[in-house]
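Example record

Each entry pairs one chain with its bound ligand, flavin mononucleotide.
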Amino acid sequence: MADGPAMQDVTFTPDADNARAFRDALGRFATGITVVTCAGADGPAGFTANSFAAVSLDPPLVLWSPAKSSSRFVVFAGARHYSIHVLDEAHAGWLNRFSRTGEGFHGLSHEITPEGIPAIHGALARFDCEQHATHDGGDHLIVVGRVLRASYRTGTPLVFSQGAYGAFTPYTPG
Ligand SMILES: Cc1cc2nc3c(=O)[nH]c(=O)nc-3n(C[C@H](O)[C@H](O)[C@H](O)COP(=O)(O)O)c2cc1C
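Structure tokens for the complex follow.
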């Protein structure tokens, strides 16, 4: 099938005048979506994040990046232990729970891990981490975690690209 009309390539320097274009360019990279959780001073805390990435198999390391401007930055940047939950297509409702005005853990089935992390039941995959290192990442902090425990199940990951959410559909050649 022929592609539709190609959009003119947009080339720019990612400065303050082109912040929207820079976000749009970054949004061409599809990611999964995670919810990162840790024990906060006022109870369980969660943070919706698509900056998750695998780093190392041996030792087992992963990363995510909280914005320094986040109201929850201090809690998450300082957490010794945290869990990263990979969302599946049925978890779209979790996204708003863990944004600024969301209802958080209220009514959500969860357990407390031996490290004291509030871990939500039903994630497509879960990585229970101990903070390994942090690195400056401009207006974000790169938080590298050593995975202490991991789990996964079958399911369809929730995918995020260009500001939209969807379910992953495998490509079948031919
Ligand atoms: C799909 C999605 C992915 C996000 N990924 C990140 C992320 O990786 N890092 C980050 O700092 N904020 C991310 N956010 C924004 C935060 O979840 C949160 O909404 C934002 O920090 C504002 O709330 P706060 O100031 O109360 O933290 C993401 C939001 C959505 C909806």
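The pocket of flavin mononucleotide is lined by residues 33, 47-51, 65-67, 70-72, 95, 99-100, 160 (CB under 6 Å).
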